[in-house]
Amino acid sequence: MGVVTVGPARATASGAAPAPQPQCVSAPPAAVTYSVTQAPVATNPRLVDLTFDSTAVDSYMETTYKRPPHVYVLEPSDYNTAPTGTKWPVIYLLHGHGGSYQDWVNPTAGNVQAIIDNSALAGRAFVVMPDGGYDGFYSDWLGLDADGHNGSGASGATEPLWQQFHMDEVMPWIDSHFPVATGPADTAIAGLSMGGFGAMSYAALYPGTFGWAGEFSGAVDSDVYWPVGSSVEGEAVNLPDGKAPDNCIWGDPVVDHAVWEEHDPTALAADLGATENQGIKLYLASGNGAPDTNPQPGEPAWSPGAAGIEQGVYQENYNFDRALVAAGITPSVVDFYPYGTHDWFYWRNDLAGFLSLLGRSSFPSP
Question: Which of 191, 218, 189 minimizes the C-alpha distance to 203?
């Protein structure tokens, strides 16, 4: 078992410093294989449940969720009546920290089916919603915490490879088993909070894959106030749920800073303007934590906890937007509204706005 990152040595009473103890450990990589079981969802005839048996993330999922990873696929509204051979556009929707593949479908959370059916797309697209882990951050992890709370390097288990799971397993499987068009003009990705990070990180790391990328209250600058901010963020993100912090996603913010920047959308902003990404349309949305002086029907009561998170998220969004502008990239939509907290009420509105962008532009529909 290889040591990836070590903590500082602590002096003993005699003044001798013991050997550093490993903070992050990495098991020898196993051959990554996967298989998929497909089943309909009894409560929704348009919903398909994919269960993946994937060595890329199985160890983490069994430790954290006690189940294998799933992917929900929402079929187009007129899928069963369309002419044979119809190819459909596809939207990948990513969940946030602590969430799961079910979040966007849940009527009291994402409510995606009602939103897309009532959008300009009129439901005429596949929507793919994969598991991304409790704290997965849409990345191939550098290692696992040595205390074993998020998985063990023993018995051949390894740290989760979320990037590989989504980009090398889920997307190719969707392309080969559903009638989706596969060009960037036909492929969109979006997500909330941690999922907003994933959407922009994947769009930058895989140029030419997505023609549209949206983030709603996205954690799009993991390096904010580096190195103190990065360290605090890792500690604080799991506090509301009483979970131990996952410190080995990208390793130590100082020692492994290059690994952090390899995934950070703000550090990768220029890559969104790469030749292969020419024409990509970006949608940025965030509140700033302030109360809404003219609340909308159904808007949640102002909460200091959700407001504090959104204040930090707004700073990350501002930094990301500035980095894009510095790289000569103009997002299609920047919706930084002067109120709003970290809540599904706003993310549903953001999704509707993103779908409006798709509908009034050249996102195809059969």
Answer: 189
Domain that holds residue 337: 33-360
- Residue 340, by phi and psi: left (phi above 0), alpha (psi -120 to 50) or beta? left
44: Cβ–Cβ under 8 A, 6 or more apart, which residues?
Answer: 105, 113
Q: Could you tell me the pTM of the whole model?
A: 0.90
Cis peptide upstream of residue 227 (ω within 30 degrees of 0) = yes
| Within-domain flag for 18 | no
The tokens of 86 are what?
């119809």
Give the CA distances from residue 55 to residues 113, 130, 137, 169, 204, in Å, rounded to whole numbers and listed in that order: 31, 16, 18, 11, 25
Return d(Cα 340, Cα 26) in angstroms, integer.
Answer: 40
CATH number at residue 109: 3.40.50.1820
DSSP 100: -
Coil, helix or strand for 94? strand
CB 354 within 8 A of CB 120: no
Pairwise CA distance, residues 248 & 3, whole Å: 11
CB 222, CB 260: distance < 8 Å: yes
List pLDDT tens digits, range 180-198: 999 999 999 999 999 999 9
Overall number of domains in the chain? 1
Interval 240-254: pLDDT, tens: 666 778 889 999 898
Q: Which residues pair with 216 in a beta bridge?
A: 192, 285
Is residue 23 assigned to a domain? no
* Phi-psi label, residue 304: left if phi above 0, alpha if psi -120 to 50, beta otherwise: alpha
Strand partners, 145: 24
- pLDDT classification of 150: cutoffs 50, 70, 90: confident
